[in-house]
Amino acid sequence: MAVDLELAPKTKRPAGEPCCEPVVYPDVEREQAERMAKIAKALGDPVRLQLVDVLRKHAGKVCVCELVPLFDLSQPTVSHHLKVLRAAGIVGSERQGLWAYYYVIPDALEELSAWLS
Amino acid sequence: MAVDLELAPKTKRPAGEPCCEPVVYPDVEREQAERMAKIAKALGDPVRLQLVDVLRKHAGKVCVCELVPLFDLSQPTVSHHLKVLRAAGIVGSERQGLWAYYYVIPDALEELSAWLS
DNA sequence: GGTTCAAATAGATGGCTGTCGATCTGGAAC
DNA sequence: GTTCCAGATCGACAGCCATCTATTTGAACC
């Protein structure tokens, strides 16, 4: 977790050839790394990744009752995965009467996508 | 895990308006989702994400002894994270004498990157 | 051989995660 | 009000994960 970036401590290297003199720094700082890792972690499950895929393909909102039968999982488990995605800021939800609809939050994946490119 | 795609079971809907008649399918199939989720999961830790960032910026190989002091973590912990990245196929390693060098495997992130775009 | 050093592995531990069945919530319709 | 249904939440449990210290491996040098 803790990433200590202030001048990487010199590994004392008395004699012999140094293994690698120029110390290297991450261009991506701690906070950005934590933001992107949070997104990546939420996508790090095949079910959640497919959920996001479905929601992205259907630019509008998709009813939970449509999502559940796509997987060989119980309704509470799918609900749990949707909650994880919502906590990561990837999707949003909206109740309409008896049903709940989920949708992808635009730009939620943009930072990670840009870094990967 | 198991994603059952053969004709999503009709949720019986006797009377009243249907919540959502056209059932929706993921365009990303199970195997692709599992491949990409595996990559995303490996990137789902800030330390690993920064490690990949450093390795990507330095197109050549980077010595482990340079990576360890970048983080406020023990050497075995950094070694563990590198092992996770290697198991995911994101990085490769190479020993040279006393030291070990890591490098990013080209195209390892490409599928996920393409899907995110 | 013996010493030294870089890196990997082993083992332990506390915390998180994916899954389930059971229950709760709250809107719709009667 | 009562009933019914969609969805969320709860509680439990097994498995995984990030981290540490201690140890092992293996290459280099004396």
How does this model look, in words?
The structure is a homodimer of 117-residue chains. Chain A has 117 residues and is an alpha+beta fold. Chain A has one domain (30-116): Winged helix-like DNA-binding domain superfamily/Winged helix DNA-binding domain (Arc Repressor Mutant, subunit A, Orthogonal Bundle), CATH 1.10.10.10. Chain A is 42% helix and 12% strand. The first copy, chain A, has a 3-stranded antiparallel beta sheet. In chain A, strand 2 (91-96) and strand 3 form a beta hairpin. Chain A is elongated. Chains A and B meet through helix 1, helix 2, strand 1, helix 3 and helix 5 of A and helix 1, helix 2, strand 1, helix 3 and helix 5 of B. The structure holds a DNA duplex (30 and 30 nucleotides).
CATH architecture of chain A: Orthogonal Bundle
CATH class of chain A: Mainly Alpha
In total, the number of strands of chain A is: 3
Q: Give the helix tally of chain A.
A: 5
Q: List the uncertain runs of chain A.
A: 1-16
Could you name the CATH topology of chain A? Arc Repressor Mutant, subunit A
Q: Strand order, main sheet of chain A: write it out.
A: 1-3-2
Q: Residue-averaged pLDDT of chain A, rounded?
A: 83
How would the blueprint of this fold be written?
The structure is a homodimer of 117-residue chains.
Chain A: H1 30-42, H2 46-57, E1 62-63, H3 64-67, H4 75-87, E2 91-96, E3 99-104, H5 110-116
Antiparallel strand pairs in A: 1-3, 2-3
Chain B binds a DNA duplex (30 and 30 nucleotides) through helix 4.
Short overview:
With 117 residues, the first copy, chain A, is α+β, with helices and mostly antiparallel strands. In chain A, 42% of the residues lie in helices and 12% in strands. Chains A and B meet through helix 1, helix 2, strand 1, helix 3 and helix 5 of A and helix 1, helix 2, strand 1, helix 3 and helix 5 of B.
